[in-house]
Structure formats: C-alpha cells, structure tokens
## 1
Amino acid sequence: MIRPAIRESWRRSREAGADTRIPGAPQVIEDDMISEVRTAHRLAPHLDGLLQLLRRVTEQTEHLLVITDEHGRALWTEGPPAVRRRAESVGLLEGFNWSEGAVGTNGIGTTLALGVPQYVYAAEHLADVLHGWSCAGAPITDPDTGQVVGCVDVSATVDELHPATVALVAAAARLTEAQLDLDMRKKDEILRERYGRHVRGGDGALLVTATGRVIAAEPTAWYGRRLDPPRPGAAVTLPDGRRASAEPVGQAYLLRPAGQAASVSVRDVPAERPVLALTLLGTDRPCAWLNGRRIPLTLRHAEILALLAAHPDGLTGERLALHLYGEEGSPVTVRAEIHRLRGLLGSVLQAKPYRLDCAVDADFLAAQRLLDAGDVAGAVRLCRGDLLPRSDAPAIRMERDELAVRIRHAVLDLGALEPLWTHAHTEPGFADLEVLDRLHAILPADDSRRVRVAQRRRRLLEDDRL
C-alpha cells in the first residue's frame, strides 16, 4: 500500500516535470563554484556539529551523509569510498540537485517540500534508477525567519538503511537549529539591552526584529510572537488586532499602538533619555523619530543630524559648516539651520559644541555595527539604498561612499544568495555586473530569479556596447 505522503510526492513531482527514466540527479553547481556556495551558506558555521553527530554512522556503516541547501542542492557529502562510488553513479554528491522537481520523490526533496522528516524506501522513489536506494531526511529551520534553510540526509542502498535512521537525522537537525537559536538569542539580547527600556512604559509598546519577531513586549504574553516584518513608518497589526506604527531603532523596530505614542513634550528631556532614531538610507524623505513621534526632515536638517549622530562628542559651528558646505561654509548659516531644527527637536539638540543630548540611533550607524559584527545579511537588509542620496554635503558624500563600498565588498566576499539578491535590488547594486554575475552563478537553474538576473545582465552589457 502506498503511503499518502509518497502518493502526494509522486503527484507533485510529476507536475513539476520529473521523469521516472532519468539517469540521476542533474548537476546545477559547477565544481569550481562549490566551495564558494558552501562557504556562503547559512549552515556553514554549524557544519562541524552535524558531522560530529553523524560521522560515526557513516564511518561504521555503508551510509552517505548529505547536507543540502533549501533548494535541495547537495553542498556537503561524507561517507566510505565504496558508498561514495555508488552514490556518484546517481548524482548523490556535491553540486547536484535533489529537489522533487529534479529527481522526483526522494528523502531530500520530499523532506524540503513537506517541511518534516521523511523516509523514502526503494520503489517509493519516483525515478527507477533510485529503487536500489533508501534515504532519511530532516529539514533545518532558521528560528529567526521561520524558513527552512537546508536538509540533513542519510542515504544507503536498500539493504543497509534502517527506517529508524529518520530519528537520527531529525535529532541532528534539531541540534543545528538549537545552535542557530543560540546565535539568534545573543543578537536579541543585544537589542533588548539597547532598546528594551522603551517597552516598559506601560503603553503596550513592542520591540520587534526586522524579521518580525517580538523580543520585548507589554503585555509579556506577546513575547515570542511573529508578526509581519515591519517597514519604517508602516502600520503593523498587533496580536490583539490593534494597529501600530513601526518606529525604526537601529536594526529593530518599536511598535506603539495607534494613539499611544509617548506623551513627553519634544521640548523636554524626560528622566530617562529618549532615543532619537534616524531613517536616512535609500530615501528622498528622511525622517526622525523622537518619543514615538515621527518628524519629517528637510535634506539640510537630515544632513546635520547624520553628522551629529556620527560625531557623538559634538561639532563646533566651524567644523559643521565645513562638513556641510566645504571651504565656503559659514557658521552663521549653520546657526540659522540649528535654530530651526531645535524647534522640531527641543532641548535634545545642544550647543557649544552642537551635539545631541539623547540616545541616538541612525540606520546607517546600525548598518556599520552589523558589518563590524560580521552580520552581512542584517546590514544588507537595513541598507535599502545610499545614505541621503540627494545630498552634496562633502562629509555626507564621504560617509555614503564608505558605507556603499563596505556593503558591496562584504556582500561579494560572503557570496551568500539572499544578501546578494537583496543588494541587487538596491540602487547601488542594481547595475552592478559583478553582483549579477555572482547571482547568476549560484542561483538554482529552476529558480525564476535566475531568468530575471540574466535579463538584467544582458541589458547592462548591451548598454555598455552602445
């Protein structure tokens, strides 16, 4: 009797175009690209833990360990020479695609399709060439995004693999998820230390990550909930149905229920220093957030605040004028702009020297911190575009160029798919041929994004020839 999960997998596989007569899995990553794709993958830092847990199984038995990405592309394999030779004949090795659409029902592709551990035995495989094999796979889910990032699989010939192996690979997957969860919680704690006090005011505010996870909240019962990923200034639905505005603070967001922004006057500094949050990346409409209040900024005011945020010890009128206008700058002109800006911000804007007397967090500074910490994916998510793209202020141009170069180099050095894809959809990365070339090389052949990247590359190359 055919198990329901297998019957459904056969249906999905046939609809995706899988053929029972294929000779084996297709190669989708060239040999010279394997190392680069592997190093960039989310699971690379946790490979040792997986291997230590499962290596004994492969060393003492005729089993093959396979670890794939979320698309079913095998990135790591390990096992005795004899089983590796047999596996090679069906494409069960690095760089080959084991999704259901490529080879039909199997322990990797079916696991990824269903999101739960699976065991596929002999003739349960759709492809005839795989009827001599059995495999057990388990998905690995990133606790931050809630998305599957890979699969751990143990495969062997029919007579060698026991159905209980599925419990082993499931345990290995859970161990890896625990390590990912530990990494995530460390980052959450840093965010709570920096911004957690702003949800303790009794107004029902929440602190939420860029991926939509609630990491501090009143009521505390909301802690751990997952919301839609917030966007600066956009409305978000809270767990009780109310709407809240998303106030960016660095790489996180404060969500305050509508009508419950903090009541402190902008001309007063409360006993507990407020956060002045600045949204300046990739926008022609820069804004500040102070005590839950959104303050639209002119370009000149945004430039001043960006410079004061980057110089927490303050700037004299002469230095600020030089940063804003170059050698022709005048402190008198700066003084007039500061007077108007103080009307918006109140006493948090101090003089002698000009400085911000509050906790300050700007998106471009948060992106720099993420790069310093090695969180390239987080930095790229935050950098939607250049710093104040319309600004001609000399110091802003310098800051903008430095951040853009750091982001580009970090993305290319990491080589990971999602940061590359995100960067390719920002203004700096949109026409970057090297970024597009890297994307085209690592995107799966059946990923629709690969066609879009190829089209953009072709247009850019044609434009260059004109």
## 2
Amino acid sequence: MSIRVLIVEDDAELREAVVTGLQSVGYETGACASAYRALQLIDTFAPDLLVADLSLPGMSGLELIERVRTLCTGRCILMTGHASLRGVVDAFQAGVGDYLEKPFSIDRLLDAVGRLAPSGDAIRRQVMTPIPELAGTGPAMRHLHAFIRQAAECRASVLLLGESGTGKTAAARAIHRLSARAAAPFVSLPVSSLSPSLLESELFGHERGSFTGASARRIGHLEKARGGTLFLDEIGEIAPATQVKLLRFLQDHRIERVGGQTPIELDVRILAATHRELASAMTSGRLRPDFYYRLAVLTHVVPPLRERREDIPTLATEIVARVAAEEGRSLVDFSDDAMHALVHHAWPGNIRELENVLQRATIFARGPHIERRDLPADLGQAARVPVVPGATLAELRAYAVRRTLEETRTKAAAARVLGISVATLQHELVRTGQAATGGADACPLSATPARGA
C-alpha cells in the first residue's frame, strides 16, 4: 500500500518538481495551489503526510496545518523562503514535523518525507483495524473509517453531518474509543429534546438556589465528561445565547455553573452532530458563524444507507444474527428475493429503519430463512408516477410529490429525492392543497383524472 503525500504550493514549477521527486521513489501524490483546495482534497484524498508552503494565497500553510488537526501528529512539512526562529517555533508548536527552507534539494525533501511518513505496514494495520460500531467495507465506509481513525489521533472538535439514523452517534463513540481518552467518560446529550434554559443547566450545571427549584448543586454534562468526550446530538438546535457560552468554553476550556461565579477549568473534547443544513441556519441568524467554525474544525458527512447499498447484505446479516440470538431464533440467511428487496429499498430512515424492518422479520419469519413474504410488501418498490392518458403535467407533478412523501415519510427526505428544497416542496403542497395531510393521501389520479389538481 503506497503512502499518500499532499503537496500545497502555489508556485507551479516548484509544485511539479516536488510531485515528480516524490513519485520517482513510489509515493502517491496529490497537489494543489491553495489551502482552501487542500481542505477539500484532505477529505477525499486522505493523505498520510502534508507538505505545504508557508506563504499561500488566502490562508497560510501554517493556518492550514493548525486547522487540519487530523494530520497534526508530526506528519506535516512546511516549506518556507523566509525562515526565522520565531516562525520555526510557531510551526513546531502547531504540529509541524519538519520545515524546508527554500531553495532545497530533492534529497532534502525525500529525507524529511521518509522520516515523517508512516510505514506502509503501519498504514495497512490502521486501515484493516475494524470499527465494529460502523460495519461496511464499501468506498463510503472506508472513507468514514479513515476519518474516524485520523480524528481519534487529535484533540480538535468534530462535527458529524448526515441524515437521521445514519450512525452519527456510533461514529462519535468510535472516535472516542480509538482516542487517548478512551478510558475517560463518553457523555452524550440530545440537544433537541431540551428547552434553552434546561439545556444550559444540563451543559454547565447549576448552583443551589440559582433558580426556582434548584434545591441542590447539580453537576453538568461538561463536568461529567471531564478528561473524556462530550457528544452533542443535533447541535443545530442550540439557542444563540447558549452557543455563546459553549463558544467561550471551546476557546478557553472553562465554564461557570448557572448561578456560580467560580471558573472551572475542564479538559473535555466536543464532538457534535446534526442532520440539518447549517449554511441556512447561519444565514438566518439561528447559528453563529464563530460558533460553527470553532466547532467544525473537522467535519465529515456520514453517508445515508442508499449511498452504500453494497454494505446492506453485511449489515442485514449482522442485525438478524443479533436479533435472532436475543429472540432465541435460529435464522441463518435470506432468500434471494428478500435480499434484493433490502438492497433496492430507498431506506429514508437509514439504519434505524433497516433495524426495525429486520427485527420484525426475524420475529415473524416462518422458516430458517427470511423470505420476501416476511418483509413489508412495498419494500424495494420505488415510487413511480403512472402514465395516465389525459393527465395534466400539474396532476402528475402533484402525484409525484405525494407518492414521494408517502415513500420517504419526511419532507426533508422527500425534497432530497425530488431534487428540490424543502421550501419548494412546502410551496408545492400548499399550491396543490396537500399541506394539511403532508402527502399521506391516496393517489389522486385515476384512469380518467380530474382537471385542476
């Protein structure tokens, strides 16, 4: 397995020379001219080593290294034409493993890369280490597993994005378990289920008498996670006032209990997750940009189940084996028809929906195998707009919206399937008189459809 090196250099001639030199001895390379492009490539190329110029347009190489904590384990090389003692000290404090003063020879570059890059065996062991919380071997899951392992090596905050039921909590637990904090607490707090005032008390704790009903001191989740990890689920639901207090903690790692005046210093890593699209939340003012950028040092989208169908047979087998053991059943396999239906279903509820379907199928299966008859009748059947002679485009459009809502069960999922925004979907529902039912009515079309739908 080759070692991947990402080169970030805006001088095209030097960038090409570095790429050629590294490739000549067997390194796999990626290259770009800006730190902003590097942030994208780091997520997709997953380099083992970063070689960046100090002076880059927009964001410096040092800022890039400070921001990308997944690589800050001594596997960063900084190239600079203006080395100074202060600059070298700052570079090493930021996690740089070596620096190259321009002009430098290819031999000097290869020596630095050879000393800092992990061995192929080390990379292979890391890639092959299983992450049981998130089963799957397809490209999307391999990418997620690589991110989890890299995130586990550093202290930076992590933001996990993705639809409900995809496994964001499992990913957070895996990051904690693989980190140096594994022996310390992993504390989870579902943000969306709490009112703003209660959330603040749950996060920071409160002193006795700080508000009506506060009859005793309460330790908050941040203190409970001391030395470990606090996972905040649905972070997009936090009120702006609470975001300010959390931002303060992320900056100086100190809190004050509600009603208290004594700062408490805490070593706690924050992992967060949301299924919401946060750009619009920042635009509307519901999410503070400074809070978002401090929180989202490392981000990754946990893929929906429909984008990793190759993992469904493995997931299904593991789920059925677990449920069968719990229920005292001896199911061992699926019929071809049953597996075909599982693989081709849209799974708007993702892994949660898969677990629900298979738990029911395991309990009610009539033989040693799960057959197609043990699964829901409409499983794996995509919603299709019927071709009805005489139907208007408006009628077909209304039916497509309605059937997609029936299939996906949520407006957000239906909008994704239809390729429109939630606002556009809501407009369609209002325009066609379906807003009250949310798309759960029967098909409005018949063999001789009515006009004006």
## 3
Amino acid sequence: MTLRAKFYDFWMNKRPKHLSATKIVALTFAAIILLGACLLSIPAASRDGVSCGFRPALFTATSATCVTGLVLYDTWTQWSGFGQVVILCLIQIGGLGFMSAAALMIFFLRKRIGLRQRLVMAQALSLNDIDGVVRIQRTVLVGSFTIEGLGALILTLRFWPDYGLWNAVKWGVFHAVSAFCNAGFDIFGCMDPGSSLILFQSDPVVLLTLSVLIVVGGLGFLVWEEVARLHAFRKFSVYTRLVLLTTTGLLLAGWVLICVLEWNNPATLGPMSLGDKLLNGFFQSVTLRTAGFAAIDQGQLTEPGKAVSMVFMLIGGSSGSTAGGMKTVTVVVMLLFLAARARGRSTVCAFKRTIPQKQVLDAMTIAFTLFCLVILGGIFISATSPVGLVDALFEASSALGTVGLTAGATSNLSVAAQVLIIIYMYFGRVGVLTISLGFLAGNRVEERFYYAQTNLLIG
C-alpha cells in the first residue's frame, strides 16, 4: 500500500464521526489557516530570512485561505518563493474548498465516496442536497483547473515579451489562480510594491483576462454545471437564471456608477483617456465582486465612490462560488420580498415559482447580520486605529465580503483591529449560516409551546 493510500485509510478510520458537515467545514478551514500561519511564520517563508512573527503570518494565512486579499505587507516584498507558494496553495484550497482537494485525492486513489463524504461535499459547495454532488465535484475540479490554465496561458503570453519567460510563467499562474479564486493577491511588487494592477491600468489584455476569471469564479459551481449540461437559458433552474441576470445587472450598474462618480476625479479616472476610463470603470465593477485587485487607488476614490464600492463588496458573488459577500440571490430575494410587501402580497415569487418563507427569512437574517457587523466593525476600527470612519467601514466591508480592497487602512490597523479583521475574514468566507447554525443546530431546543400573539405598531 502506498503512503497516500495509507494516509487516506488512516483519515477514514480516525476522523471525528460525531461532527456535523457544517462543523467539519468550519473547523477544517480553521485548521488550514493555522497550518498556513505556521508555515508562513518560519524564517524560510520571508524574503529576508527573518520570521515575520505569528500574528502577521496568521493575518496573511487567513486572508489567503478566505480568499480575501487584505495584506499587512506587500506579497512580493515580504514573502520568499516558498512563502508565495504557500500563499498560492492556501488560495487554491480556500477558493475551491478543502473538500475539492480531498475529492481530488479520492478520485486519484479511486476510492468509493461514502454518504458522509457526500454530505460534507454538498455543504462545502453550498448545495441543498447530495443528489449529483460527485458529478458536480468533478465538474468543479476539471472546470477550475481548465479555466485557470487558460487564464495562466493568456497572461503568460502577454507578459513574456516584456518581462521574460520565467516571470511570465510565474506571474501568469499566480494571478490566474488568484483571480479565479477571487483572492486579490498579486506579486507585482517587484516593480512597484503595493501598486497591485495600477501598472497595467492601460492594458486591456491583463484587465479583461482577469475580469473573465473573476466573474466565472464568482458565478458558482452549481451554475457552471447547469450551463455546461443544459446550454439553454429557458432550461436553467430559477436559481441559475437569477444568478446570471443579477450578475449581469450588478456588473453593468457598478460600471455605470463608478464611471459617473469617478469620471472627473483627478486621482482615479480623471487623467485617463476615454477608453481607459471605460476599461478601468468596468474592472473596478468586476473587482468589487470580492476579487480585490486594484487598478486605481482605492484610497483616492470620492466619498460616494467608496459608498458604492462598499455596497457592491457586501453583495459579493454567488453561493457555492469562490466569492464571498451576502451573495447575489440573497439580495434578489430581499428585493423581491420588499416588492411583494409593497404590493400587499405575502408570498415572494420569481419566474412563476414561489420562494419558501424560510429562505426569505434566511436572506433577511444574513443581510441584517452583515450590515450590523460592518457598522460595529467600522466603529471599532476607527476607535482603535488612526483611521477615519469611512475608511474603517470600507475595511470592515472588504473583510466581511472577502474582497481585499483597502483605502489604505490595513497597514495602520492596531493589533486589536487586526484581530477583528482576521475574525471578519474567516466569518465572511465560511459563512454566517454555516457558523451560527452549524454550531448551534446540534443543541437546538424543540419548541413545545407558543405564547399568545400580540400586535405592535410597526413603522
């Protein structure tokens, strides 16, 4: 028996069997983060050969695993080749989900996938049931590596003439994975530390390639599977239709709003040509979908521009994707609920289908929870760090939405604020319901009686 087969058998026999699927997802993400922090804290992971300390390593590992992109140090300047490989592995595992890595090993060893593994797969992919989960998992793995490979090839061919083959391959692979997983990490610091993609703000090949990778990664694995299998919009499920329409609408709305608000801003779009303004306005709309790459200086956005950015960062991508945020369909359900109530209706419908009341309440709960956390987090960051309230709210929104954009506040955070951002990034990636319900559902008390109803004045 090979070493890999022995490891697999050991895990199958010794793994905790009393944990629910949601607890396994949450705890495994935490374990991966801690492992990554330990690896990044060793001297070999730093470019100068001196350990950065556990707290900065934990911050970076959390940001990479939760595919956020917030960093205390420039990735190229601080981390050695080994450190960058660790970060890239954390991004890939965090973006696709740890169960994708486990499933890859299971497929490779040709082992049977049991019911419990299917349950964890479904939970990690944000699926409602286990029907077809193995097929979807295969689609996720094959599709992800294929799309990342194509993106890496295009970027490599673009960088090769100007920066040499080795840099082109390294940059192509790293940024293709980072973009597809909506992570926002970059290693362009060798040219201008902390500049992200500002050096390429006039390069349509780089920006549009990364945009496609970001959007595809943020659509969600279930949407891929349906699009690949059915090929026709009318055959798609209600969920897939809502995801595609909402994603398109949000991208167009963000593009228009950013261009309108920043068109004459001399620190962002103002000095650019017409084509570059439209290109960077579109890329800003795309990167707000939890990608975290910056082609313009986020700290120089106008106040309305920052407000719009915060809204789009909190919305994020779609369920079961590499993106974070409250998710596109969550927002749609909320809007449909408000529209229904405004017309005096009690049911929420989409494409001639009724959305269960429980899902409407879940959507409202997620949105309200994230909104409250952003407000409280922004106040805490502003109170404990030399950061203005608007920039503090921007930072909290970026962490909770696992976006990674910053208005310049990350490097000025106090120790307490850094700890809060670490918690927010983890919370935003694993998911509000996964954490709260996953750890509480096991001891849920059955409601044996109800109190009499009373009427209140609302509004």
